[in-house]
Amino acid sequence: MATSDSNFYSGHRERLRQKFLDSKLAEYERLELLLGYVVPRRDVRPLAHALIKKFGSIGQVLTASFEDLIAFPGVGRNIAIFLKLVHQIVLDGYKSTMDSRPIFHDINVLKNYCKWALASKQVEEFHVLYLDPDFRLLQDETHSQGTFNESSVYVREIVKHALSLNATGIILVHNHPSTDRTFSSVDIETTEEIKRLLKGLDIILYDHLLVSKNSIYSARDIGFLRD
């Protein structure tokens, strides 16, 4: 029976690999194929289905926190580490693109990077992306980590750090762990203050992005960052 099971899994996974090459995999099958590389001798179809049902999509499975993953039935330490490794590789790919090309070359790369970095955070984080004269990424700084519904912003520290990096532009990014998809009045006031201080130093505040769950919102698109 063990040999029969082994032959079935081997044949099934080879069929999944071929379906992947033919671009015919369903979402749960992509996760199943991925899990098969870290769980070689177990049927992981039920786990793939359960993870997507719990978190919503394969992207949200990968961006889920290590703690949430390891707490899920059937996901041990090795699987959780493997999934977070894949998550980090995706982040590195987006970041490499922003390091080498202007961020506005493909604005979706910037937005996807921010979603993959912050969508699963359980507390608010405030990040500052510092840009060089060609609008390439110099540094993604985690400026502060806060509580479920707020994080601190030290405006003069942002300005000071921008000058130390010789940055000519910055992008502000923060997340809302709740379902709140709107910029608060404090968010808007802080953004305007940072914009005013930077303008006097010929540093552009390019945008302020808000990540809420698996969505992202742009202050520039909304209109309150326009000159």
- Please indicate the percent range of residues in DSSP E strands (runs of 2 or more): 15-25%
| Number of structural domains | 2
Number of strands: 5
Q: What is the overall shape?
A: elongated
**At CATH's second level, what is the architecture of the largest domain?**
3-Layer(aba) Sandwich
Strand order of the largest sheet: 2-1-3-4-5
Helical coverage, percent range: 40-55%
Give me the Rg, rounded: 21 Å
The number of distinct helices, counting runs of at least 4 residues, comes to: 10
Order of helices and strands: HHHHHHHEEHEHEEH
Main pleated-sheet profile: 5 strands, mixed
**Which spans have pLDDT < 50 for at least 5 consecutive residues?**
none
CATH class of the largest domain: Alpha Beta
CATH homologous superfamily classification of the largest domain? Cytidine Deaminase, domain 2
